[in-house]
């Protein structure tokens, strides 16, 4: 695999671990509240929803790590699948929740996906 593709996939995986931590463990604290823009009451009310989202981000990260360590052709296929999921989730989130998600999630996922496909 191309080193650039490997690094980009690893960075997208790390990003999703970071999002998992923010949404599952820091949602009601300053970092999570700054991310969401919620006051303490709304952060408390939405914490279970955020934790659920965080768990899904963890699954994306786990899939990307699996793709990095699995031998080809499985590793390649797993990376393509999970990066496609990241891009779709980012596009949906950008369209329905916050446009920042397009840049924070969809763009890195798309760049990594393009690198994997070119390296493939």
In DSSP terms, counting alpha (H) and pi (I) runs of 4 or more, how many helices?
5
Mean pLDDT across all amino acids? 95
Q: Span between N and C termini?
A: 7 Å
Catalogue the unreliable spans. none
Query: Over all CA atoms, what is the radius of gyration?
Result: 15 Å
- Briefly note the structural class of the backbone: mainly alpha
Strand percentage lies at under 5%
Anisotropy-based shape: elongated
Q: How many strand units?
A: 0
Q: N-to-C SSE series?
A: HHHHH
Helical proportion, percent range: over 70%
The biggest beta sheet reads:
none
Break the fold down into its secondary structure elements and pairings.
Blueprint: H1 3-25, H2 30-36, H3 40-69, H4 74-96, H5 100-119
Helix pairs in contact: 1-3, 1-5, 3-4, 4-5
In short:
With 120 residues, the chain is an all-alpha fold. Helices cover 86% and strands 0% of the residues.
